[in-house]
Every structure is written in structure tokens, then in C-alpha cells.
């Protein structure tokens, strides 16, 4: 009986161990399942958190883009300066200005109005206006023109551009007076008054000699600039100043060889795509490679007379070159003059709110080139 009892006890003990092992195994399997479930939950939570972060970033980016679209050009970029050979905004980012130049404001004053500028800003996406005030031509500032009226037009134009948050160039538009020194005293008095008037306007750029020509050397232009720039600097120590170059502002390579000692000066180049091709772009490249800042303050897509046929192939080459080099450019001209370079059709009398049908072929090309940005 003892043997039987011992055997039964042994069987019972073994059975208990087997049951305990089964329980332990079951508990282990449950524990592993719970761990796997917990791990999956953690991964799910991580994915959800990542998705939340990504969605938040998308919302923030969307809001940022929407806010940028609501900002005017000046609100977006603030006061400009030159840095590392590039036009740069208050955030340290390179900025490209693109817009329209008036024709001579003595002859086409009707386009200096707030609705015209608003149309260019909102419909064309322009961020800059150039106010071209001729000096020596009939009715020009230094040749019988009404000086007070012309200055008031400039002041009004700056005021309209400022209210719209646009940049504006005050252009001393020499042409037939090929050497800017010819009317230097008038220029000194003019820019002294303009700098004083616009002392609180950080959206104003000063172009001190449109197109030196007639064999005027860079040395002569440089000497002129060295007298005009200090007059502006008395009131506007950091304003961007644009300086013309020899041969109707085409020989920018000459300026690159002997630049002015002023950190916020840019050198202008003008081109008309029907006449000026790769040889002029090579001059720009020479200047850029030397770290000299370039600003294209006047251009069009016809020949250098402002008339003739449109050279679309050359125009597209210029547009690609300007964009790839982040060069600012200003189109000639905001007028309905009966010539190819006029942006408004000669048959259109509207002063603002132009439809595409109101524009010349040149006007439609520039609107397309700018509005798609």
C-alpha cells in the first residue's frame, strides 16, 4: 500500500508540475502577446504623433505662404542693401526686383497714378516702379521743363509706390546730355532735395545717371558719382544707389575694373533684346565674377531704338539669364507711345486696369514673364 501511495503521490506531483508548466507557458504567451500589443500601440502612437507634426508643419507652411501673399513687397523684404554682390533684403535673402519704368514723366504724366501702380502690383506681380525724369530733352528738367511740376510728379510717384508697399527708383534720366557732368550742379541740388524729402522712405533707390554716352569714359562717370553720392548719403547713408556705365549703360565691365568705394552701389546695364545679345551678357558675367553688383534698370525685347520687330528668342535668352543670376530688371516703358517698346497699346487711353487686349505685344510678354513668379 505504501508503494501504491508513493506512486500515486508521484503521479500527482508530476501532474501538478505539468499543470503549472502549462499555466506558466500560457502566462508567458499572454505576456508576449501583451508586449507585442503594447509595442504595436507605441508604434501607432509614434506614427500618429509624426502625422500630427507633419500636418502641423503643413498648416504652418500654408499659413506662412498665405501671409506672404498678403504682404506687400516692402513688408516682405524691408530695406534693401548690397551684400556679396547681390541685392539683399533685411532678412539677408537675395531679392530680385522686377517692374516697369515710366516713359519721360514730362510727356506721359498720366501714368503716375496710384491705380496704375496698383494694377502693376496686383495684376502683373511687379514690385518696383522706375520714375524716369529726362534732363536735357525738350521739356526735360534742365532744358525748359517745369522743375517744380516735375519734382512734384516724382514725389507723388514715390508716395503712391510707398502706400502700395512697392520699391521705387528715382531716375535722373540723362540721354542727349551724354556726360552726366554736363548738368552736375542741377543733379546735386535735385538729389539733395530728394534725399531730404524721402529721408524716411526706405523703399527708394536712386539712379544718378541713366545712360552716359557719346564717348563718356568710366573715369568721368566715376568722378561725377563721387560728387553725387555723398549728397545722398548725408540723409540716406544706406540707400541703394544705381550708377550708369559707358555707352548707354552697356560697358559694365569698365566699372568692374575700377568700382566705386561704396558698399551699397550697384552698376546699371541696359539691353534691348533685338540688338544686344551674348556679347553684352558676357560683360555682365565678367562683372558678376568680379563680385560687382549689377542692376538692369532698363530693358526691352525690340531693338535699341525702342522700335522695330520683337526678337522673342533673344528675349527668352535674356530672361533665363536674368533669373538664373538673380538680376533685377525694369521694363521700358509704361506708356502708350506708338513704338514697339511701349507696354500699352497706342490705341488704349486707359490709365490703369488694363486688360491683355489693352497691352502691346511687348506689354503682354513682360506681363507673362513677371506675373508667373
Structural features, described:
- Strands 3-4-5-6-7-8-9-10 form an 8-stranded parallel beta barrel, surrounded by 5 helices.
- Helix 5 links the parallel strand 5 (167-173) and strand 6 (204-207).
- It is globular.
- Helix 5 (184-197) runs parallel beside helix 6.
- The chain is built from 11 helices and 10 strands.
- Helix content is 47%, strand content 14%.
- The chain is an alpha/beta fold and 373 residues long.
- It has helices at residues 2-70, 73-77, 114-122, 147-163, 184-197, 218-233, 246-249, 252-257, 278-289, 312-324, 361-371; strands at residues 81-83, 86-88, 98-102, 128-134, 167-173, 204-207, 241-243, 265-272, 294-300, 329-334.
Topology:
Blueprint: H1 2-70, H2 73-77, E1 81-83, E2 86-88, E3 98-102, H3 114-122, E4 128-134, H4 147-163, E5 167-173, H5 184-197, E6 204-207, H6 218-233, E7 241-243, H7 246-249, H8 252-257, E8 265-272, H9 278-289, E9 294-300, H10 312-324, E10 329-334, H11 361-371
Parallel strand pairs: 3-4, 3-10, 4-5, 5-6, 6-7, 7-8, 8-9, 9-10
Antiparallel strand pairs: 1-2
Helix pairs in contact: 5-6
Q: What about the largest sheet?
A: 8 strands, parallel, barrel
| Number of H- or I-type helical stretches | 11
How many DSSP E strands?
Answer: 10
Output the helix-strand order. Answer: HHEEEHEHEHEHEHHEHEHEH
In percent terms, what proportion of residues is strand?
A: 5-15%
- Head-to-tail CA distance between termini: 104 Å
Shape label: globular
Q: Let me know the average pLDDT.
A: 89
Percent helix: 40-55%
Radius of gyration: 34 Å
Unreliable spans? 1-15
Strand order of the largest sheet: 3-4-5-6-7-8-9-10
The structure class reads alpha/beta
Amino acid at each position: 500500500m505504501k508503494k501504491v501511495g508513493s506512486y500515486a503521490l508521484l503521479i500527482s506531483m508530476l501532474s501538478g508540475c505539468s499543470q503549472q508548466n502549462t499555466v506558466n507557458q500560457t502566462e508567458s504567451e499572454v505576456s508576449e502577446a501583451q508586449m507585442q500589443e503594447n509595442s504595436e500601440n507605441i508604434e501607432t502612437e509614434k506614427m500618429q504623433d509624426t502625422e500630427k507634426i507633419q500636418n502641423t508643419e503643413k498648416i504652418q507652411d500654408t499659413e506662412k505662404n498665405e501671409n506672404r501673399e498678403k504682404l506687400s513687397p516692402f513688408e516682405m523684404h524691408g530695406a534693401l542693401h548690397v551684400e556679396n554682390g547681390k541685392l539683399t533684403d533685411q532678412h539677408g535673402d537675395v531679392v530680385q526686383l522686377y517692374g516697369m519704368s515710366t516713359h519721360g514723366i514730362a510727356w506721359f504724366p498720366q501714368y503716375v497714378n496710384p491705380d496704375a501702380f496698383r494694377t502693376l502690383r496686383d495684376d502683373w506681380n511687379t514690385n518696383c516702379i522706375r520714375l524716369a525724369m529726362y534732363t536735357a530733352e525738350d521739356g526735360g528738367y534742365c532744358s525748359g521743363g517745369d522743375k517744380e511740376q516735375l519734382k512734384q510728379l516724382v514725389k507723388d510717384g514715390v508716395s503712391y509706390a510707398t502706400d502700395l508697399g512697392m520699391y521705387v527708383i528715382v531716375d535722373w534720366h540723362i540721354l542727349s546730355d551724354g556726360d552726366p557732368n554736363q548738368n552736375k550742379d542741377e543733379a546735386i541740388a535735385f538729389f539733395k532735395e530728394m534725399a531730404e524729402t524721402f529721408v524716411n522712405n526706405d523703399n527708394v533707390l536712386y539712379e544718378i545717371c541713366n545712360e552716359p554716352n557719346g564717348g563718356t569714359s568710366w573715369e568721368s562717370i566715376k568722378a561725377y558719382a563721387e560728387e553725387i553720392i555723398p549728397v545722398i548719403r548725408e540723409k540716406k547713408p544706406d540707400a541703394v544707389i544705381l550708377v550708369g556705365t559707358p555707352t548707354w549703360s552697356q560697358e559694365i565691365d569698365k566699372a568692374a575694373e575700377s568700382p566705386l568705394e561704396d558698399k551699397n552701389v550697384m552698376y546699371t546695364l541696359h539691353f534691348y533684346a533685338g540688338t544686344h545679345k551674348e556679347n553684352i551678357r558676357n560683360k555682365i558675367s565678367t562683372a558678376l565674377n568680379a563680385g560687382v553688383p549689377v542692376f538692369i534698370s532698363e530693358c526691352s525685347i525690340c531693338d535699341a531704338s525702342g522700335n522695330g520687330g520683337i526678337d522673342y528668342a533673344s528675349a527668352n535668352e535674356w530672361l533665363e539669364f536674368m533669373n538664373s543670376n538673380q538680376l533685377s530688371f525694369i521694363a521700358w516703358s509704361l506708356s502708350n507711345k506708338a513704338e514697339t517698346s511701349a507696354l500699352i497699346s497706342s490705341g488704349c487711353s486707359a490709365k490703369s486696369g488694363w486688360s491683355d487686349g489693352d497691352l502691346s505685344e511687348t506689354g503682354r510678354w513682360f506681363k507673362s514673364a513677371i506675373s508667373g513668379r
